Amino acid sequence: MRTISFACFIILFAGIIGCNNQSKRAAEKERDSLQKVGAAIQENAPLPQPSSEVAKDINLNTNTPKDKKLIKTAEVRFKVHHVLKASEKIEDLTAHYGGYITYSNLRNVEQNSGSSRISRDSVLISKQIVVENEIMLRVPNDKLDTLIREINNFVVFLDYRTIKLDDVTFRYAANQKRAATMQKYQQRQTKHIDTKESKLKETTNAEETVLNSQLETDELSIRNQELEDQLKYCSLTLYIYQKPVIVRETIADFDYESSFKPNIFIRLLNSIIQGWRILEEIIVFLVRIWGIILLVVGGILGYRLAVKKIKK
């Protein structure tokens, strides 16, 4: 009996060990298969996409063909640490690169405000102020990119940057050719007037024609000068601002007596104090007229004595 029980125990123990070995081999096979699947997924997986970043640089590259006449204009809005200091540095850089400031509007913009009572007769005013400056400047075209790179050092956060290149090559050439044609026409008309003998009316009409032609030529010349100035100096507009500043100020509330009524205990205390002050004034007044009081008392006593003597 004992031999049979011991044999059964050995068989059961061997079965348990065999099951454990099989489960281990199955787990190893499963782990190997998962590793193979993971490697295959990694091989076929797409490359990771680059993380998106906000635009924070305002550097420009406005190199243009030499045979083109382009008017450059740019507009930038960005945040700085300190508006006043940044404005001063931008003005210095503009002058350094041969430019000049045409407009500057430094201002404090109130965004939010509130008030709270801190005592019976005082109010705390809180304001959220944003310092802003709008700067319009002109700088030589070949110095625009360099100036922008210098200004980029002040940028904390870029809102937007707009660049515009206006091609005026054909307009400039057309103005020049038309001005040359008008000048030749004037020369011919002037020569015709000087050499031909005509009546006064005809001569006057011809001279008026020459005058109108000269005025048109002058206008074309001025337009070309304006274009040349715009081609030589580009326009740059900057909108800069800084982090909002909280400004607090304590002011007196002059409407306290009418708008705020104290409680009854304070009013009773104030009445007692005022009554005592009135009593003090009365005592002081009586002391000041002690002589008159003495004469009145003496008169009353003398009158009573006189009356008594008369009755007796």
Overview of this structure, please?
- The structure is a single chain.
- The chain has 312 residues and is of the alpha+beta class.
- It has 2 domains: 54-168 and 227-273; 170-226.
- 56% of the residues lie in helices and 25% in strands.
- The chain has helices at residues 2-44, 83-96, 144-151, 169-195, 200-232, 256-259, 264-288, 290-311, and strands at residues 70-79, 100-119, 122-140, 157-167, 233-241, 245-252.
- Strands 1, 2, 3, 4, 5 and 6 form a 6-stranded mixed sheet that branches.
- A hairpin with a 2-residue loop joins strand 2 (100-119) and strand 3 (122-140).
- It is elongated and about 145 Å long.
- The termini are far apart.
Topology summary:
Blueprint: H1 2-44, E1 70-79, H2 83-96, E2 100-119, E3 122-140, H3 144-151, E4 157-167, H4 169-195, H5 200-232, E5 233-241, E6 245-252, H6 256-259, H7 264-288, H8 290-311
Parallel strand pairs: 1-5
Antiparallel strand pairs: 1-4, 2-3, 3-5, 3-6
List keywords for this structure.
single chain; 312 residues; alpha+beta; 6-stranded mixed beta sheet; 56% helix; 25% strand; elongated
Low-confidence stretches: 40-51
> How widely separated are the two ends?
160 Å
* Element order: H for helix, E for strand: HEHEEHEHHEEHHH
Describe the largest sheet: 6 strands, mixed
The averaged pLDDT comes out at: 75
Shape: elongated
Share of helix among residues?
A: 55-70%
Number of strand elements: 6
Strand content: 15-25%
Q: Helix count, per DSSP?
A: 8
Radius of gyration: 50 Å
Protein structure class: alpha+beta
Number of domains: 2
